[in-house]
Amino acid sequence: METHPTDSRAQITTMALLVTVISVAGCVQQPNVPGYSSPVTDPYASKRWSSPAFTTAHASFGDAAKHFLNVKPKPQQPIDFPHKIHTEDIGVYCQDCHTGVKTGPRAGIPSINICMSCHEDIGDPKDSRIQLLRDHAKRGEDMPWQRVYGFVEESHLRFNHSPHIRAGVDCATCHGDLTQMTVAERVVNHTMGFCIDCHKQKGASNDCLTCHY
Question: How many Å apart are CA 139 and CA 116, to the nearest integer?
Fold first, then answer.
């Protein structure tokens, strides 16, 4: 018996339709999921654009803008540390307290042990600054000194103090004359231009990888 091509196509179509109907009718188990009639309200949606926090890193748009423009707030120190008395009057050198300045990348912020190496016996016990130092030492806590200088993370800068000290760069070149300051202040703007000009004067490399990573 001869089969016409049209009949074969009709049979294939009928079989495919039958399989589809059986599947939809229940041969395949269907998930018991309620209909999605109304979406659940996002509890954070109303706060997302009204929150005072600009990002997780900055409390406001203003703070984010200051960070972008490298505008830094004045550090709030736990006590007024009189650099002038220590450096000019007593003759304490920068590296006596900032011990890492000759040996590594960081000058280091003095620990309470460095302070107490002198102030365990020296200092007016009625002076509130001396009292606070000794109280921290008794508790084994460092003073929460705030950095005065520093580069933003986006600079990708690796500044190393030790080669600058070996090259004879005076601390005052980058930090100002602390012998005339009662409290350390940011008086030198560490821009790329400032560093490049100094490297040109000293004959140091200005290759990008000298400072950046």
Answer: 13
Q: Give residues with Cβ within 8 angstroms of 102, minimum separation 6.
A: 95, 161, 162, 165, 166
Distances (CA, A) of 194 to 62, 71, 167, 200: 26, 16, 17, 10
**Domain locations along the chain:** 65-109+148-211, 111-144
How far is the first Cα of the chain from the last one, in angstroms, to the nearest whole number?
Answer: 83
Is the full-model pTM beyond 0.70? Answer: no
Q: How confident is the model over 18-46, as pLDDT tens digits?
A: 666 555 555 555 556 555 455 556 555 55
- If DSSP codes are grouped into helix, strand and coil, which group holds residue 128? helix
Q: Let me know how many helices (H) and strands (E) the chain has, helices first.
A: 11, 0
Q: Which residue type occupies 153?
A: E
Residue 211 φ/ψ, nearest 5 degrees: -115, -30
d(CA 178, CA 186): 10
